[in-house]
Amino acid sequence: MSEYTSLEQHASYGIGLQMGQQLADNPFDGLDITAVAAGLTAAYQGEEPAVSEELIRAAFTEISQRMQQAQAENAKVEAQKGDEFLAENAKRAEVTVTESGLQFEVLTAGEGAKPSVSSTVRTHYHGTLIDGTVFDSSYQRGEPAEFPVSGVIAGWTEALQMMPVGAKYRLYVPHELAYGERGAGHAIPPFSALVFDVELLAIVE
After folding, report:
1. Closest Cα partner for 205 from 139, 140, 129, 150?
2. Looking at 125, 169, 172, 191, which residue is catalytic?
3. Is 125 among the catalytic positions?
4. Structural contact between residues 79 and 191, judged by C-beta atoms closer than 8 angstroms
5. What's the count of helices (H) and strands (E) in the chain, helices before strands?
6. Catalytic site residue 13?
7. Which of 179, 188, 191, 203 is flagged as catalytic?
8. Among 6, 43, 57, 70, whose Cα sits 20 to 30 Å from the Cα of 131?
């Protein structure tokens, strides 16, 4: 049975859970949760801090620099993995490489009209990192997606204009034609090459 029984204790515990989740989502190496709790208690109770503002500022600066350096190193690794994957993939006979560097293979040819850059389309799609990790899939949601051809990543904008309605392509998208150096949230790291299965269901307008 929980030691927290009152309404106020439940709410207080919930606040702690939320703060802990925020820390877990953005941790740094060496984060000391006991020291976090001590700082929280000192601030709430108006106690004299055990660590000076000067030391705290210096620590924040150093930790931030370490994290930026680690992110830069990880980005280099991710970019290299993507480049190597695409270079090897381009050797396959079924893969076409466009002038921009986009790679695709035709899974289903399709016989309908092709959208223009000003069209809005309805598609089913399945997106993964090059290691197969799924980050988004309308198939898994069970509902197609509609969007303007000009309102998606550059690799998609290019590919959709080549696809007749009814076609299904597999796209291999270099990071320059995807989310680039910024990535997209936690799911897509910076400099990630991406793989999409895209099925063009209809031109909506």
Report:
1. 150
2. 125
3. yes
4. yes
5. 5, 7
6. no
7. 179
8. 70
The token pair at 60 is 């924040």
Q: Is 196 considered catalytic here?
A: yes
Query: Within its chain, how far is the Cα of 143 from the centroid?
Result: 21
Amino acid present at 81 = K
pTM as predicted:
0.71
32 in active site: no
Instruction: Name the maximum alpha-carbon separation found in the chain.
Output: 74
**Strand pairing partners for 169?**
106, 198
Q: Which two tokens stand for residue 63?
A: 């930790």
Integer angstrom CA distances of residue 173 from 29, 67, 77, 117, 176: 32, 27, 17, 18, 8
Q: 81-134 pLDDT, tens per residue? A: 999 999 999 999 999 999 999 999 999 999 999 999 999 999 999 999 999 999
Whether 172 is catalytic is no
Cα 202 to chain centroid distance, Å, stands at 27
Reply yes or no on whether 139 is catalytic: no
